[in-house]
Amino acid sequence: MLTLKNGRKVITADMWWKQRRPEIVEDFEREVYGRVPAHVPPLTWTVQVAEREFVGFMPVIAKELVGHVDNADYPSSTSTSK
Fold it and tell me: Which of 9, 17, 20, 53 lies 20 to 30 Å (CA to CA) from residue 44?
């Protein structure tokens, strides 16, 4: 049976959605995904190359992306990443 962090049992769907699920989401953000810092510069992506290919027998569209970071606040930083 599911329990909240305080040990109480989750007995309704409402408890799951309003109490336990947010606890799990918080744990994942903190422990698995990590937190995004408060002042992250904007990032935009552009497609440099798009080609139709096959992975095994499955048709796919392969894309090469280039990221552009707005470094107006930090002009000495590089601004392109592949």
Answer: 53
